[in-house]
Design a protein that fits this description.
single chain, mainly alpha
């Protein structure tokens, strides 16, 4: 029994919606910072903070995804070992 898990793919519409949502949120924050009634250095600090938070979020998402994929690979290797043991096991073979 060899079950290969189906890799889930996102639809094109879902991908486009995620990209559009991210771009809209980033533009809204940038526009809000630009129109903020504060000194230029305060707006610059907030802009850098938003960029840092954005890159940190991408990094965290990648680390979580990589860890999940590594777990799936280990699980598949363990499953393959168990299937080999079960395939090689003969209950009617005399014990040595």
């Amino acid at each position: 029994m060899n079950e290969t898990p189906v890799k889930q793919q996102n639809s094109g519409a879902y991908h486009a919606q995620a990209v559009a949502s991210f771009a809209l949120a980033l533009c809204a924050v940038a526009l809000g910072i630009y129109h903020l009634d504060a000194d230029a250095w305060v707006r610059a600090f907030l802009g850098i903070a938003v960029l840092y938070l954005t890159t940190s979020a991408f990094t965290l998402a990648k680390v979580v995804r990589d860890r999940q994929e590594a777990g799936q690979i280990v699980s598949r290797v363990d499953q393959a070992r168990m299937e080999k043991i079960l395939a090689d096991y003969d209950p009617f073979q005399p014990k040595p």
